[in-house]
TrEMBL record:
Its EC number is 3.6.1.27. Catalyzes the dephosphorylation of undecaprenyl diphosphate (UPP). Confers resistance to bacitracin. It is a multi-pass membrane protein. GO terms for cellular component: plasma membrane. Its main location: membrane. This is Undecaprenyl-diphosphatase. It catalyses: di-trans,octa-cis-undecaprenyl diphosphate + H2O = di-trans,octa-cis-undecaprenyl phosphate + phosphate + H(+). The chain crosses the membrane at residues 48-70, 91-111, 123-139, 198-216, 228-249, 256-275. The gene is uppP. It comes from Fredinandcohnia quinoae. Belongs to the UppP family. Keywords: Antibiotic resistance, Cell membrane, Cell shape, Cell wall biogenesis/degradation, Hydrolase, Membrane, Peptidoglycan synthesis, Transmembrane, Transmembrane helix. GO terms for biological process: cell wall organization; peptidoglycan biosynthetic process; regulation of cell shape; response to antibiotic.
Length: 276
C-alpha cells in the first residue's frame, strides 16, 4: 500500500480522535474531509470498506476512553477486590449504562442500513451540524436555571434513560453523539462535566457494538492490502483521542457547549458556501 494512502489513514484517524468526544460530530467531520478531499472510496475500491473504516477507527477512540476511565470501568464490572461502598452512597452502576444505551441501540439495529444508505452524505451532515448546535445552545441556556448533579455517580435511572432517548439523534451523521448526550444530560439536571463523563463511559459499549456489527457485515470486503490502512487509522485515532479527552474534560465545565455550537454552525455555513 502506498505511503500516501497510509498518510490519508492517519489524517482520518486524527480527525476521528480529535472530534469523537468533542461535541462537533466525528462522523460528520470524517465524511466532510473524505468527500471533499481524501476520497477514500476510490483508493480502497469500495464504499463499503470506506464506510466501515470510518466506524472501525472508532475502536482507537474507544481504547482511549478505556485508558482514561480504566478505574471507573473496573468498578462498573466489579473487578476491584475488597472494595467497600458506604451504605446509602450513590454511585454509577452498570445498569445505568444499560438503561442509557437501550433507545439508540434498538433504533440503530433497526435503521442501520437506511442510515448507511442515505445519511452518509455531506449535505445531510451539514444539516445535522446545525440542528445539533441548536440543541446545544438550548441546553446551555437551560442549564443556568437547572439544579445540577455535579458528579456522574448522582445520575438516576430516569435521567439515564432520558439521555439515552436524546442520544437517538446521534444516529444522524453530523448530529454528534457527545453533543446529543451531553446536551441531554444538562437538560435533565447534570453538570456539564457529569454529563460528559456519562457520555464517554456510555460511548464504549455502543461504539464497540457498532464497530463489531459493521466488521462482521462487511468482512468480505476486507483484504490484507487494506490492513495497514486500518492499523494506521486505529493508532492515529487512539493517540489523538487520548489527548482530546483529557483536554476536553478539563475544559467543559468552564466553556460549556456554546463555543462548540458556534463552531458547528460556522463550519456548516463555510462548507455549504464553498462546495455547494
Amino acid at each position: 500500500m502506498e505511503l500516501l494512502t497510509i498518510i490519508k489513514a492517519i489524517i482520518l484517524g486524527m480527525v476521528e480522535g480529535l472530534t469523537e468526544f468533542a461535541p462537533v460530530s466525528s462522523t460528520g467531520h470524517m465524511i466532510i474531509v473524505d468527500d471533499i478531499w481524501l476520497h477514500s472510496e476510490k483508493f480502497l475500491g469500495s464504499k463499503y470498506v470506506a464506510n466501515t473504516f470510518m466506524v472501525m477507527i472508532q475502536l482507537g477512540s474507544i481504547l482511549a476512553v478505556v485508558v482514561v476511565f480504566k478505574d471507573r470501568f473496573i468498578d462498573l464490572l466489579g473487578l476491584r477486590r475488597n472494595k467497600i461502598v458506604p451504605v446509602g452512597k450513590k454511585r454509577l452502576k452498570l445498569t445505568h449504562i444499560i438503561v442509557g444505551l437501550l433507545p439508540a441501540g434498538v433504533l440503530g439495529v433497526l435503521f442501520e442500513d437506511t442510515i448507511d444508505e442515505y445519511l452518509f452524505d455531506t449535505k445531510y451532515v451539514l444539516i445535522g451540524l446545525v440542528v445539533g448546535a441548536i440543541l446545544m445552545i438550548i441546553a446551555d441556556r437551560y442549564s443556568a436555571k437547572n439544579d445540577h448533579a455535579q458528579a456522574v455517580d448522582e445520575i438516576t435511572y430516569k435521567q439515564a434513560f432520558t439521555v439515552g432517548l436524546i442520544q437517538c439523534f446521534s444516529l444522524w451523521p453530523g448530529f454528534s453523539r457527545s453533543g446529543a448526550t451531553i446536551s441531554g444530560g444538562v437538560l435533565v439536571g447534570l453538570s456539564h462535566r457529569a454529563a460528559a463523563d456519562f457520555t464517554f463511559i456510555m460511548a464504549v459499549p455502543i461504539m464497540a457494538g457498532a464497530s463489531g456489527i459493521s466488521f462482521i457485515k462487511n468482512l468480505e470486503y476486507f483484504t490484507m492490502d487494506a490492513l495497514p490502512f486500518f492499523i494506521a487509522g486505529f493508532i492515529s485515532a487512539f493517540v489523538f483521542a487520548l489527548i482530546c479527552i483529557r483536554f476536553f474534560l478539563k475544559l467543559i465545565d468552564k466553556v460549556k457547549l456554546l463555543p462548540f455550537a458556534i463552531y458547528r454552525i460556522l463550519l456548516a455555513v463555510i462548507i455549504y458556501i464553498v462546495y455547494f
